[in-house]
Amino acid sequence: MRSEQDLTHRFEGESVGRALGLVGERWTLLILRETFFGVRRYGEFARNLAIPRPTLSARLKTLVDAGLLDRVRYATDPDRHEYRLTQAGRDLFPAIAALMRWGDTYLAGPEGPPIVLRHNDCGHLDEPFLACGHCGGPITADNVSSEPGPGFRNN
Questions:
Q1: Could you tell me the pTM of the whole model?
Q2: What is the CA radius of gyration of the chain?
Q3: Which sequence spans correspond to the domains of the chain?
């Protein structure tokens, strides 16, 4: 039996923890970053990331099994496959862009960020930000509050 002060049950199904369980490992995030920049083939991932091949194979399988990437044959004899983002994978772009922006702000060298994002619709360099889907105002840690959602458990 849990004590009244033991609140761990409330977070067992918590979304951030579940998401990090799937994509929170360094190589997984770097593979996703590469897919957003157009990398599709196993050899390109291995070359660009200098990732051990067994690790790459395992992470790609996890991403395919989780529905973030599709494994698509692009050649036969021998069969060769490429990896394409699914909608669920594409929906992670804001998280990757936010991590990139944070790294550019706090970790980039004096010469500035190594990669920038250009918004194709207006042609300007992009500065991604989180905004409310209703009013368009910026969302920060200081102007939101959390409350129980439909999946919240009291016990």
A1: 0.83
A2: 19
A3: 8-86
